[in-house]
Amino acid sequence: MIVTKIQISNFRNFKRKVFKFSPKTTVIVGPNASGKTNILECLFLLSTGKSFRARVEEEMISYPEEIARVKGEFLRPKTSLEVVLTRGEITVGEDPEKTERVPRKRLLINGLAKRLIDFAGNFRVVVFGPQDLELVIESPSRRRNFLDTVLSQVDREYRRGLLSYEKGLRQRNRLLFRIRENLPAGRQGASRSQLLFWDKLLIKNGDYISQKREEFIDFINTTSPMNEQYFSLDYDKSAISEARLEQYAKEEVAAATTLVGPHRDDFCFRLKKGKRARDLSRYGSRGEQRMSVLWLKLAELAYIEEKSEEKPTLLLDDIFSELDHEHRKVVMKAVGGQQTIITTADPHFIEDIEKVEKIKL
Ligand SMILES: Nc1ncnc2c1ncn2[C@@H]1O[C@H](COP(=O)(O)OP(=O)(O)O)[C@@H](O)[C@H]1O
Ligand SMILES: [Mg+2]
Prior knowledge:
Blueprint: E1 2-11, E2 14-20, E3 25-29, H1 36-48, E4 67-75, E5 79-86, E6 89-91, E7 99-101, E8 105-109, E9 112-113, H2 116-119, E10 125-128, H3 140-154, H4 156-180, H5 192-222, E11 231-236, H6 242-247, H7 249-255, E12 266-273, E13 276-279, H8 280-283, H9 286-308, E14 313-317, H10 325-334, E15 340-344, E16 357-360
Parallel strand pairs: 3-15, 3-16, 10-14, 14-15
Antiparallel strand pairs: 1-2, 1-4, 4-5, 5-8, 6-7, 8-9, 11-12, 12-13
Adenosine-5'-diphosphate binds at residues 12-13, 30, 32-38, 59, 61-63.
């Protein structure tokens, strides 16, 4: 799908706004803190049902309003997607003390309420901003989050499996804690046999998650969008199985946490030079680390296109000011290959881009 228009109200710094987008390239120009990233956050929200930066979703609601709305119009096929956010209650009538409890988030497709797994993945995006440039040296959780964001967009079963895995993991960890502390859990007390239920659930969903992550990493390694460099990813998989859980059973109770499974996965970036493939987090220059992220982002575009048989919309958040000439050229090549929305504080970076629509903040 491509986005043609969004209407937003009470979203961060925007009271009420309508923005229109070209099916090709749209450039959003504005000074710092004018809301450029907020617009991309709206688009990401319509894509995934989540924010790429809010720690608490309530953050996105303009202070001190009670309800934020983001509604997008899409083509191919003609669809409307809408996200409504609240702080969990709204005042009714004139009396500010009189409140009613309401859901914190509602997701709608063509006006009909949907679950997250059905809402996400209709409008597909690849976001690329300054924070991504550090992916090579960031924490493993950031890299896992990257894998989940990509795979969740193209695979409904992955979205379902991931939600179920995360829920199961929290329950299992809670139970491990109760076992360690000898606390009663339910009528039967916290026993090792109760763990079996969660073990099965985690193994079933965890297997699917690792398998899909593995497939994605294989795709990335065999589809090189930049042939002059030899980057590759190494999947550091934390497999989950009955045997592995058994092996760590004692330690898990002592730590009161699940020690194996995809929530412990990681991957590293390598650059092949001669016979050796060096780990870029340790031996890469800053330039090489950044180039490998560009390589990964281009591969992400290709992967989503291959899996969904449709080009995702590329969202570039203030990226050109962060890059040197060589890196900029790589990103520029990707602009124009699909619907692209670019934000910048400095219009001179995008002079060479054929811009169809321009938004000035
Ligand atoms: N919940 C909120 N209510 C009101 N304003 C907000 C809220 N969250 C963020 N903002 C404002 O949004 C602006 C930042 O927008 P941002 O999209 O990051 O700007 P840019 O990317 O153009 O630099 C800041 O002025 C910030 O105060
Ligand atoms: Mg910004």
